[in-house]
Amino acid sequence: MHNLARLPEKEVEERIAIFQNTLQKNALDGALLTQNIDIYYLTGTLQNGVLFIPCTGAPCFFVRKSVKRAAFETSLEVQPLQKSKRMAEVLKEKYGVIHQLGLEKDVLPMGLAERYMKWFPQAKVVDVAFMLRLQRAVKSPYEIRQLQQAAKRVNEVVISIPHIIQENMTELELSAKIEYALRVQGNTGLFRMRGYNQELVLGMVSSGYAAATPTYFDGPAGGLGVSIVNPQSASMKPIKRGEPILIDISTVVEGYIIDQTRMAVLGELDSELVVAYEEAKKIIREMEKCGKPGVSWQTLYQKALAMAEKAGLKEHFMGFGDDQAKFVGHGVGLELDELPILANGFDQPLEVGMVIAIEPKFTFPDQGVVGIENTYLVTENGLESLTFANEDIIHIPVV
After folding, report:
1. 375 vs 66, 326, 342, CA distance in Å?
2. Does the model's pTM come out above 0.90?
3. Which one of 143, 195, 228, 262 is at 20 to 30 Å from 18 when CA atoms are compared?
4. Which of 310, 307, 355 has the alpha carbon at shortest distance from 329?
5. Which residues partner with 373 through β-bridges?
6. Is the peptide bond prior to 66 cis by the omega test (within 30 degrees of 0)?
7. What is the pLDDT along the chain (399 residues), one digit of tens a residue?
């Protein structure tokens, strides 16, 4: 039907087996999954439908559109999605009476949830979102290979930065040149996020005061954006000499997102900002040292926060004032905001196979944002960086 790379059948089988084991441990009869990325993760297709996974036995993907393409792309059973009353009958005939039903409460709209619950009139609903997200946090060798390929593509762009940036070019021009370089390599330009009302294009490419402009995006840098309805990242502001240029960019390979931040400047950076950047590097080195299996997610955040405070930079850490972000790292994979979250309140341990973007940054109002970000794989021996671009500030000579 098409020559696009398909998710290996073995990946699908192993993922479903793990999830069914989770359902059994939590005494659930099955789960109805509706979110597109959860569906892709467990089927290998992103067609429009709902996926029912029983605690034992064969799952079934009920597809609204396109049934034909879904049947080609996934090895699971595919059936056309029926009208609501008929769906209740089909599911009962196929799986019996469901008493304990899992739904993704974090992303499923209430109106749809009420409709789907009518298919299972005797079921008590249990949230399975965190269970599945925790499973997705541990990456398979296949997933790691996609992330490694994405890291190579981002590195190529970083190498080209000195040849791209020019004085007085706008942030948007710089962002467009980076986007083009990634796009022609196959980047989709679509960076999926699970967080409600969170959106992102490319990342945060911004300079000077614009990068330090706070916004709704839950991160350490905001960006002025091109309009009030797009209030983040690159703007029409010209890039000036001496300003910190934040290049926080992502790219996607087979749906998998890598995340990396590097800094550039036309000429020289103010000494205060250089000191802050060096502190960000010290923090990320400490994260590398401490990020071992068994260490809690919140421990890394607390260590980073303590280091920022000791350096006298706590009020600038991960934002400024009331707009400070309360984390120092986040999982990446098929979404940009996966587990684990390096923040207070998360005492879950790091596990081998987890992938984390760690991004200590410092925000200085009216001056800009400086910091670094690498994406790491948790191994038995600690953190292994998947991103490998040179970490030195990129100095671009000006006449």
Report:
1. 35, 19, 13
2. yes
3. 195
4. 355
5. 261
6. yes
7. 888 999 999 999 999 999 999 999 999 999 999 999 999 999 999 999 999 999 999 999 999 999 999 999 999 999 999 999 999 999 999 999 999 999 999 999 999 999 999 999 999 999 999 999 999 999 999 999 999 999 999 999 999 999 999 999 999 999 999 999 999 999 998 999 999 999 988 999 999 999 999 999 999 998 999 999 999 999 999 999 999 999 999 999 999 999 999 999 999 999 999 999 999 999 999 999 999 999 999 999 999 999 999 999 999 999 999 999 999 999 999 999 999 999 999 999 999 999 999 999 999 999 999 999 999 999 999 999 999 999 999 999 998
